[in-house]
Amino acid sequence: MAYTVQCMLMHAAVLGSPHPQFDHLTAMRNPSPPALVPVRIWDLPTRLFHWLLVLAVVGLIITGNLGGNWMVWHARLGLTVLALLVFRVAWGLVGGRWSRFASFAYSPRKLIHYLRGRAAANGVGHSPLGALSVWAMLAVLTVQVGTGLVTDDEIAFTGPLARLVETSTALAATAWHKGPGKLALLALIGLHVVAIVVYHLRGKRLVPPMLHGDKLLPPGTPGSRDDARQRLLALVLALGSGALAVWVGSLG
Ligand code: HEM
């Protein structure tokens, strides 16, 4: 054995290349993982949904703080978020594999295992912790949109559905919308961005896949369908969601 190793080292020293047997033995001891290949994880509709949602929510925060005439735009952006949420619910059922709710509906047990470090995320779609933040954000956004639709500030602004509820309900909804609801949303957005920065510092880059759609993964990892037919389906669903939001807005 000692002779074999000495022979290999001499081979490397003299020829400047490893002994063929050395390569073979190294490969046997440290089998290198197969080369990673780009796999489509976030289909185009999911990426458009995400970045339009970011724009709309930032616009809502700004216009909500400016108040006055900006409330017209606040209401329009709120209806835009309504359309986006309706679209996302539909896309969670029929969208690409990794955008489907079923792919990130983790049980509390799985989440606890993940948090305790006992189970690793598969590194493909949303991790259990990421999924929790996504569910929380979608839920808080839904409540913000719902309360915004029936809001009544008793001065100049009423939501399009305010007349369908009791005044006391509209006032309670307004108080939630401007108070705890807004704070919860801001806190979740802050956590979301901080988590992404922390992952980035640990070498896990989550933002590029949300821009171009692909992650580098072992060959054979199933991807999300993102072809022309699927995008056409998304367009039809987006138009339907938009029409629904316009109709809700017209009820005011
Ligand atoms: C108003 C602010 C934001 C909101 C409301 C928001 C909301 C969301 C939602 C709902 C998802 C889930 C996407 C889906 O499956 O449909 C998500 C994922 C994601 N967001 Fe945001 N986002 C915000 C800002 C940002 C910013 C500023 C960045 C980049 C720095 C970012 C990067 C990401 C990434 C990389 C994911 C995928 C996370 C993963 O791989 O699990 N988001 N975001």
From TrEMBL:
It is found in: Cell membrane. The keyword Membrane applies. PROSITE patterns: NI_HGENASE_CYTB_1. GO terms for cellular component: plasma membrane. Residues 42-213 form the Cytochrome b561 bacterial/Ni-hydrogenase domain. The chain crosses the membrane at residues 48-71, 77-98, 119-141, 183-201, 232-250. InterPro entries: Cyt_b561_bac/Ni-Hgenase, Di-haem_cyt_TM, Hydrogenase_cytochrome, Ni-dep_Hydgase_cyt-B. SUPFAM superfamilies: Transmembrane di-heme cytochromes (SSF81342). Pfam families: Ni_hydr_CYTB. Signal peptide: none annotated. GO terms for molecular function: electron transfer activity; heme binding; iron ion binding. The keyword RNA-binding does not apply. It is a multi-pass membrane protein. GO terms for biological process: respiratory electron transport chain. It comes from the Bacteria. Keywords: Cell membrane, Electron transport, Heme, Iron, Membrane, Metal-binding, Transmembrane, Transmembrane helix, Transport. Belongs to the HupC/HyaC/HydC family. This is Prokaryotic cytochrome b561. It comes from Tepidimonas aquatica.
